[in-house]
Predict the 3D structure of the following.
Amino acid sequence: MTKSTGPRTPPLLAAVGLVAIVSTSNAQSVRYGATPLAFPDQFVPRAMNSSRTIAGSYGSYEDGTEAAVWSSGVLTRLGSSGARYAGLEHINERGDAVGTRSDTGSNEPIRYAAGVLEPLAAPPAQDWGVTGINNDGVICGIGYDSHGLPSAMLWIDGNPVPLAPYQLAKANAINNRGEVAGTRLIQLQAVVWRPDGTLLELQRGDNLWDPRFINDAGLVAGDNGPNPILWDPQGQAREIIIPDHQWGSVAGLDRFGHVYGQAPRDDTSQYEAWMFDGVEAHILNDLVDGEWGRFVRVWAVSPLGELIVATDAGDYVLLTPVPGPASAWTLLACACCLLPRRRARTIPPAHTL
């Protein structure tokens, strides 16, 4: 039998792993600086990259919405690609973003790239959800038929490629290695599809665990009934316990393996935003100096762990990590690794199950 030595770890992934390890070792010192965000009243942020370019929507249900991008204090309204409602939900480091448009309640996928907002080609479906875009511009999403049954999909250079043809599956997130986290519904199995066609089955529990985010180190975060879950790159699960809260939902995962979300309190049912530092969960208000009101929701998480949170008064606040001296250099190293660069792109094949 030939022993497999496994794939060689690229320098970028080694750097990401080093940063994640050092960050976890300094987890107890993580705190945040807070800055109020003066968004226009009708702008809703949904995603943020490391340059603090924020993708979202502008408008209202009554008047319609359009895709929008906010950067350096300037809001750019992009229109709705011919529909009554449109919005962007995910953004990569190059500033490309994806989302959906809708007229009648059925969503269609859209992409914003090179200054142009346009619909994405897609096979016939009753409804579409776009769930991620990586730095190569590969997009993942889910198409639903008239019975609500899902099919997983990739878009490569704007062209749709079935991720799991003829099978019930959801593609929930994609990383810069081309790995896709999702669920095979026939087996009720959380999985990671890899570009080489192999499949990693994530450890399962009593409930249908729903992976929702995957970072470049292969960590996966998702929901499982009462408590969030963090899977390691080998697929082993760890339950995230949020003390004094009924349950929690995941809203983001950064490059350091920190997980973010919101949860209602046991005693009041009021929501509070939280973060998991690799060791334990913390209420975000406890990690920020000053009076900002109660942070009730995490709206966006950048790869570097910057957050857009909402307060109970309806205000938006940017939370920026204030690392200890030992981790400041690793934060800088990670920022350098995130810089877009020209390189050969590995095109994921059409995966089969």
About this structure: Helices lie at 11-25, 325-337.
